[in-house]
Amino acid sequence: MLPMVDSNFESYYASKLDPYCNSKDCIVSLKKHNIPVLLVLSKHTAQVKALWNFQGLDYLPLEWYPHAVTWPKALPFGEKLPGFDEGFIYPLNASSILPPLTLGVTPGEIVLDGASAPGGKTLVLWQQMMNEGLLVANDMSYVRLMRQKNLMNARGIENVVFESQPLETLYKKYPETFDAILLDAPCSSEKHVLAKPEELTKWTPQRIKNLAKRQIQLFDGAIKALRIGGRIVYSTCALLADENEDIVSNILAMHPELQLESWELDDVPGMQGFEVIGNSFDPKNVRRILPHIEKHMDPMFIAKFVKN
């Protein structure tokens, strides 16, 4: 049974989303459980293929990302996957692969995951870096960061430094240091709000305004740790332009040293951003995942900047 939606929440989101998409379909899709895809690092691919082949399970990578596979059809969802206990598999929603994939890091670079826990996006970054260079995983929650550290250690992940510092001041330790930064910012995360009745009862429009202010603060701190010529990806799992397109527009107005990059990954899921009146950039240069359009995927917004 799908959870009930607070009428104030639904009417507010309808007023904000209906100019751009079908808000009713979008909210209904948010309430559905999506089966995760399974991240398999290249160092574990052979073991997982052997384990699955032994049990007659199909190993089917995503068309647009070879290091993640779909849940095997022969195994009911929720049953234990061969290779999971060994740390060979990490379940995550397919949308979560897109922000680190967009950042496009390469072996040998110095990279920051600015809000890293629980760790799925960090694993995607590490896979791109092929264990060469330096990856810094930072999260304000020390408890969540330690869980992530245990996750990495269980998978034999090296070349990762763990920090638990405010992203706004991390640049004091790493001034203009990083070649690439991922900021998957704290956001409204409507899917999680709808999944928990206690969170829905606490929801107000003011929460969105507070989060938007916080997102700008985090971004301002992050770019001070980015070297000239470096790139930064801003992403959220929020639906509204307030935390997405409007943030991009504000960033460009506040930081003339930043350039919004054109979208380059044409073979991945998603659509262009919302055409918000008054915003100063081409919405084709940002990417959205809307859950009623991309089936089995959670919401995601992605924008990539270069620092000049």
TrEMBL record:
User: So which domain of life are we looking at?
Assistant: Bacteria
Q: What InterPro entries does the annotation carry?
A: MeTrfase_RsmB-F_NOP2_cat (IPR049560), MeTrfase_RsmB-F_NOP2_dom (IPR001678), RCMT (IPR023267), SAM-dependent_MTases_sf (IPR029063)
Instruction: Extract the signal peptide range.
Output: none
State the Gene Ontology BP annotations. RNA methylation
Keyword flag Transferase: yes
One Pfam family assigned to this protein is: Methyltr_RsmB-F
A GO term for molecular function: RNA binding
The protein in question is named: SAM-dependent MTase RsmB/NOP-type domain-containing protein
Q: What is the species of this protein?
A: candidate division WWE3 bacterium CG22_combo_CG10-13_8_21_14_all_39_12
